[in-house]
Specification:
- The protein is mainly alpha-helical.
- It is built from three helices and no strands.
- It has a domain of 35 residues.
C-alpha cells in the first residue's frame, strides 16, 4: 500500500491578497502572534500531559516540539 501526499492549498487566494496589502511590520506581527499562540497551546498540552513536570522541564519540551527536535 503506497502513501499519498495530502492534496491541500497552502494559502487561500483571498488571504494572500489580504496579506499582500499588509506592511512588512504588520506581516511580522501576524507571524509572531501565530508563533506565540502555538507556543502557548503546546505549553498547555505538555502541562496537561505531564502535570508533575517542573516549569523548566515543560519549557524544554515546548522548545523541542517547536524546533522539531533540534533543541
Amino acid at each position: 500500500m503506497g502513501s499519498k501526499t495530502p492534496d491541500f492549498d497552502v494559502m487561500d487566494d483571498a488571504m494572500a491578497t489580504v496579506l499582500r496589502e499588509k506592511t512588512e511590520q504588520e506581516r511580522l506581527e501576524i507571524g509572531f502572534g501565530m508563533w506565540h499562540f502555538a507556543r502557548t497551546m503546546i505549553r498547555e498540552v505538555v502541562r496537561a500531559e505531564h502535570p508533575n513536570w517542573t516549569d523548566e522541564a515543560i519549557q524544554r519540551q515546548v522548545a523541542k516540539r517547536m524546533s522539531h527536535g533540534a533543541v
